[in-house]
Write a structure and sequence with these properties.
The complex is a heterodimer of chains A (about 130) and B (about 150).
Chain A (H helix, E strand, L loop, with lengths): L6 E6 L2 H11 L10 H22 L7 E9 L2 E8 L16 H8 L2 E7 L2 E7 L6
Antiparallel strand pairs in A: 1-2, 2-3, 3-5, 4-5
Helix pairs in contact in A: 1-2, 2-3
Chain B lengths: L17 E7 L2 H15 L6 H16 L1 H4 L4 E9 L2 E9 L3 H11 L5 H5 L2 E6 L5 E8 L7 E2 L1
Parallel strand pairs in B: 4-6
Antiparallel strand pairs in B: 1-2, 2-3, 3-5, 4-5
Chain lengths: ~130, ~150
């Protein structure tokens, strides 16, 4: 990611941190080359990814962090949401509606999940957008 | 479609109330720093005007970021308490915090940082660098104690 457009957030994996991420990320308007419509899509997708971390990543394990890395790669907004939990497992008692990942996939141009630097991460790359 | 609110997972209870933002100095830092501090301040019992002032302090720090940080990055760590916000800025180049506060005053009046903060102090780090610690409580200090 280009250093001048990149930033990182690290927060306790709590519900109110999702709001903080969303509010901070909205501050890229006018700095990143994104339209307001694209920024809305990014905010929805990132909110879903962060909500997944808060709800699922640290179930039954000690407290952890929610990390969000954002930037522009070759003109594409990229957001990586990380956690250091043991990994998602299917839940029959999930409090969510089960639409988070499909929604992220619909809003992002590319969506992938994996591991890096000892963390689980969801990486979302969005369409190039004009301001 | 009604969606249930996001609730804290069990592991979140007791987690550190510290949040961090790392961003390159420049226009993005200015845009994000104030939002970051304001969003965290909204979770405290601070009056809204003090949350606003905390955001202004963060923006003032971001404005001077390039001359303060050896790496050209603004590193903010914010700890929230029910009655206050504690903002740590750094690592800063040695002597940068004092220059910042002196320059803050030279711009007229007590300056954004000292005029609105409750406490301002610098703390040394290894390698000659330092951290600026700014506390914003319900009331500004009397010109803010500078330690």
């Amino acid at each position: 990611m280009s250093p001048s457009t990149a930033f990182e957030l690290s927060l306790p994996a709590r519900a109110n941190s999702v709001t903080v991420v969303r509010h901070v990320l909205a501050g890229v308007a006018g700095v990143w080359p994104v339209s307001s419509e694209l920024l809305d899509d990014i905010l929805i997708a990132v909110t879903e990814a962060c909500a997944n971390v808060v709800t699922h990543a640290y179930r039954d394990v000690p407290a952890g962090t929610l990390e969000v890395h954002c930037g522009i790669e070759a003109g594409h907004p990229v957001v990586v949401v990380r956690d250091h939990g043991p990994g998602f497992v299917p839940r029959t008692d999930s409090p969510g509606l089960g639409i988070g990942i499909p929604l992220m996939g619909a809003l992002a141009e590319e969506l992938s999940a994996g591991h890096a630097d000892g963390a689980h991460e969801v990486r979302m790359s969005f369409a190039k957008g004009a301001t | 479609m009604n969606r249930p609110p996001v609730e804290d997972g069990p592991a979140a209870v007791g987690s550190l109330e510290r949040a961090r933002l790392s961003v390159a100095c420049g226009v993005l830092a200015r845009s994000l720093a104030g939002r970051f501090v304001a969003a965290l301040g909204a979770g405290t019992r601070l009056p809204i005007d003090r949350v606003d002032e905390a955001a202004l302090i963060a923006e003032a720090l971001a404005d001077r970021c390039g001359e303060l940080t050896p790496e050209g990055r603004l590193e903010l760590a914010v700890t929230t308490y029910p009655d206050r916000l504690e903002v740590r800025v750094g690592p800063l180049a040695g002597g940068a915090a004092l220059r910042l506060l002196r320059g803050d005053v030279e711009r007229g009046g007590p300056g954004a940082i000292r005029g609105m903060a409750t406490t301002v102090e610098t703390r040394p780090m290894r390698g000659g660098q330092e951290v600026l610690r700014v506390v914003i409580a319900a009331h500004p200090g009397n010109g803010a104690r500078v330690a």
